[in-house]
């Protein structure tokens, strides 16, 4: 019974709370540009994703039009393909799919509950 540690008193808890509050009061509040930074960066990245995919699509379309002499058709087709790719990139960015290393959606097959197609065993 001598190994039991005494329970901390309310005075100890109060002293710790004062210490933490004093440290917190010393830190500057995030205002202005510091508060806007992460949101603005995310918004700019969304814009860049859309514009870049659209520019690549239109560029490929113009080059194919020039090479195949099919003026405006390839540009129109690749404009829509570039737009679709841009929206897909924005969707992935906003939802977080496909940007994490080793991303894999967990389902029954990945948890090991279902046998894989190459497994040998009883049916």
How would you portray this structure in words?
With 123 residues, the chain is an all-alpha fold. It has helices spanning 10-26, 33-68, 73-95, 108-111. The chain has a domain at 55-98.
- Oligomerization state: single chain
The total count of strands amounts to 0
Average residue pLDDT: 79
SS strand fraction: under 5%
**How large, in whole angstroms, is the Cα Rg?**
29 Å
The H-and-E topology, N to C, reads as HHHH
Helix percent reads: 55-70%
Q: Give start-end ranges of low-pLDDT stretches.
A: none
- Major beta-sheet overview: none
Q: Can you tell me the overall shape?
A: elongated
* Spatial separation of the terminal alpha carbons: 59 Å
* Alpha-beta classification: mainly alpha
Short summary of the structure?
This protein has 123 residues and is an all-alpha fold. 65% of the residues lie in helices and 0% in strands.
Provide key terms for this protein.
4 helices; 123 residues; elongated; mainly alpha
Describe the protein's topology:
Elements: H1 10-26, H2 33-68, H3 73-95, H4 108-111
Helix pairs in contact: 2-3
